[in-house]
Amino acid sequence: MSRFVKACAAADIAPGTGKQVTVDGKEMALFNVDGTWFAIDNECPHRGGPLAEGELEGCLLTCPWHAWQFDLRTGESLTDDSKVSCYPVKVEGGDLLVEV
After folding, report:
1. Is 34 helix (H, G, I), strand (E, B) or coil?
2. Are 77 and 62 in contact (CB under 8 A)?
3. Residue 11 DSSP code
4. Could you tell me how far CA 90 lies from the centroid of its own chain?
5. Quick check: 100 and 7 in contact, CB under 8 A?
6. Which domains can be identified in the chain, with CATH numbers?
7. Per-residue model confidence as pLDDT tens for the chain (100 residues)
8. Residues 98, 15: Cα–Cα separation, whole Å
9. Which of 65, 66, 72, 96 is the most exposed place for a label (fewest CB within 10 A)?
């Protein structure tokens, strides 16, 4: 059964940026796209690059290691047919909660 777990304070992630967090033992990348929140696996399926450190342009994320690109809304790669997992996020009392 899934549940929402606190990841961090919403104020910790400025618009247009991301942050690596560990939620319930799982490493994730959280992103703020103009007040809309996205959570995905932090590890790029190509070579394990840290996606939280990637470059964000709208909902398009570019891995910092080898420039693989992912759509934060779906987790789908624009580079090949791979995908990263996406997790629902909600804001509650100023905190970001991620469903695990």
Report:
1. coil
2. no
3. G
4. 13
5. no
6. 4-99 (2.102.10.10)
7. 789 999 999 999 999 999 999 999 999 999 999 999 999 999 999 999 999 999 999 999 999 999 999 999 999 999 999 999 999 999 999 999 999 9
8. 18
9. 66
